[in-house]
TrEMBL record:
This is DUF45 domain-containing protein. It comes from the Bacteria. Residues 18-137, 138-184 form the YgjP-like metallopeptidase domain. Pfam families: YgjP-like (PF01863). It comes from Streptomyces javensis.
Length: 197
């Protein structure tokens, strides 16, 4: 379905009694309707929620990862514990990935196979992160408080509608600041996406 230049997928569900609209992670728009819903009603619903869709698409753009993909190329910068380290391909058998003298050293045999290099680097990040985190909290206390309050608010109200944010605001008036800080931290985390080589 196309409404005012926007393409929306229509999903019909026998379990639905009301219309629903979602913006997927990839930016796709989906309108969910009950079986007997006329197309005109779905179009009117989409038009009535145009501002909401605009807001969600704007938020999606703002929260795009800053570093969504890696090439795993020699010399590429990787972050670890807030510092930058260059990948250095070395002909040095042993551990496939090591942090030595400020360089993230990757054995050439490992680097030759992109899938193997990705697994080795992800394993190194996991092991190194676990070693670092032992006995430490991984988030500042105010963000831990925010995450706990956020989840506890879901006990009373599911979803993230206006009532939910009002409830969270009563429990934690500064929630918007902490949410923005946590969102920004999440944008900077490398999640293992690798560009084709």
């Amino acid at each position: 379905m196309s409404v005012d230049g926007r393409v929306l997928e229509v999903h019909v569900s026998a379990r639905r009694t009301r219309l629903g609209l979602t913006v997927e992670r990839d930016g796709a728009l989906i309108v969910r309707v009950p079986p007997a819903c006329p197309p005109e009603r779905a179009e009117a619903f989409a038009r009535a929620n145009d501002r909401w869709v605009d807001d969600k698409l704007r938020l999606r753009e703002e929260r795009q990862p800053l570093h969504p993909t890696r090439k795993l190329a020699d010399g590429e910068i990787h972050r670890y514990l807030g510092r930058d380290y260059r990948l250095l391909y070395v002909d040095d058998p042993g551990a496939p990935v090591r942090l030595v003298a400020g360089r993230l050293r990757v054995d050439l045999a490992t680097a030759a196979d992109p899938a193997r290099a990705l697994r080795a680097l992800a394993d190194w990040y996991t092991r190194a992160g676990l070693r670092w985190a032992q006995g430490r909290l991984q988030l500042p206390f105010h963000l831990i408080d925010y995450v706990i309050a956020h989840e506890l608010a879901h006990v009373r109200i599911s979803g993230h509608g206006p009532d939910y944010w009002r409830l969270l605001g009563r429990a934690m008036p500064e929630y918007a600041r902490w949410k923005a800080e946590l969102d920004e931290m999440g944008r900077r985390v490398w999640m293992g996406d690798v560009a084709g080589r």
